[in-house]
C-alpha cells in the first residue's frame, strides 16, 4: 500500500480503498503483503511494525555482495531565482531581493567577464581566510553563504535593470539544467525540457534531479544480508515458477508481473495493484532475466514541458505501449516524523508514504518520499482522473519491506507528445460530492495561474482533455 500526499491539490482529497485482488507473497519474500490505496492527505494513523531481525549466518557476515544497482550517485543543490515579475517591478529605486544561484563554472566565466551581477564578496560574503580562494574565483566556501538573505539594491544609475540581468542568467541556467539532465542519461534516454526563458528559473533554480533516493536522517536500507534471491535452475526464471514472483491467494501459481518478451507490465498487473519483487543480484539469474524492469532504467526520452494551465508536465515524444515502464518517482526519503514537520512547515510538498507493509506493522513508522525539491522527471506528472499511467510499488530487495520503489507504467498506448498523467487518488469515490478536507482554490499552490478545468466526467480508459476531480473544487 502506498499513499500519495501531494499538498496543494493533494491535501484536498482523502480516500482509501482496498485493492481488488490481493496476492500472497512467495515464501522467499519475507515482507507482508497489503492492500493498495492512495490518498492525498496526511496518512491515516499507521500501525507500526516491528522488524524481525534474521539471525546472521557466518556466510552473511562475510558477505561481499555488491550493492544493489539503485544507489544515490549525486545530490543536486537547490537554488532560487526570482523573476522580475515575482520580485515586483524592478524600478530603479526599489530594493529587489535576488536569490543568486550557486557559483558554477559558467558563473565564474561571467565573473571573469565582469558582467554578472552578484559575483563579488558583497554578494558572497566570506571569511578572511577564504578571501584568497574567492579572489582566485574559487568559491567553494562561499557556497555556505545564505544567499537567500542577500539583498541587492537595483542601482538607480545602472543601465542594466533586473530584467536585463535575466538574459545572462538564462544563459547560465539553461546550460546548467542541460548538464544536470545529462547526468540522468546514465539511466536511460535523454530528459529534455521545453520551457521558455521566463519560466526556466522555476525549474532550474528550484529543483534538483536525482538518480536515486536520498536517504535523510533516520532512514536506512535493510542490510544486504537480509536480501534473498530466487534459486531458479540454470538462472532460468520461468513465469509462474520463479520464487521472486508472488502467488495469488489460494493458488500455487505465481502471477507474472512482467511480460517475458518485452520489459513491460503484464496485462494482469496493469489492472491490479500489487507489489512486484524483481529479481536481484542474489538470484541465480543475477538479476539478468525478464523479472528485472525498473533496474534497467528508463526506456523513453521524456520531456518536461509547460502545460500552460497546470504548471509543468511530462510527456514523451516517442510512442509508449501499454505496460511500458516510464520511470521511478524519486526524492528525499524521510521518516514520518520529518515528513509531518515538512507538511506543517510549508504549503508545498509532494509526499508519497511507503506504507505497503505498515498495516501489519507493530512498532515502525513508514518512510515518506518527498519529491518537492529533489526528484526525478516523474515529479512533474500531473493528475488526471482519466490517466494514462499508474504507479506500481516495486521492490528490488526481499529483505526490505520499508524502502521500495514507485514505478510509473503506462496503462494504455500513449501517442507521442501526449502528456503523461496519473490519478493522484485512484480510489476517490466519484459519488462523493464534497471533501471536508478540501482547501479553497485560493489556498492551493499555483506555480502559474491556471484557468478552471472542467470536472472529470469520463470513465477510466477513455481519452479526453485534462480535467479535475470533483473533490478538487
Ligand atoms: C506533482 S506536482 C506536478 C507538477 C506541477 N505541475 C509543477 O509544475 O510542479 C503536483 C502539483 O501540480 C498541480 N497539478 C497537478 N495536476 C493538476 C491538474 N489536473 N489540474 C491542476 N493542477 C494540477 C497541482 O498544483 C499539484 O499540487
Number of helices: 8
What is the radius of gyration? 24 Å
Q: How do the SSEs run, as a string of H and E?
A: EEHHEHHEHEHEEEHEEEEEHEEEEEEE
What general outline do the C-alpha atoms trace?
A: globular
- What amount of the residues lies in strands? 15-25%
How many E strands? 20
Structural category is: alpha/beta
Largest sheet, spatial ordering of strands: 1-14-15-13-7
Mean pLDDT over all positions: 67
- Helix share of residues? 10-25%
Spans of at least 5 consecutive residues whose pLDDT stays below 50 are 6-103, 106-126, 139-164, 431-453, 459-473
**What is the distance, rounded to the nearest whole angstrom, between the alpha carbons of the first and last residues?**
27 Å
Q: Which ligands occur here?
A: S-adenosylmethionine
Q: Specify the biggest β-sheet.
A: 5 strands, mixed
Description:
The protein is 14% helix and 15% strand. Strands 1-14-15-13-7 form a five-stranded mixed beta sheet. A four-stranded mixed beta sheet has the order 9-18-19-12, with no helix packed on it. The C terminus is likely disordered. It has a domain of 95 residues. The chain starts with a strand and ends in a 51-residue tail after the last strand. It has 473 residues and is of the alpha/beta class. Bound molecules: S-adenosylmethionine. The site of S-adenosylmethionine has 18 residues, from strand 17.
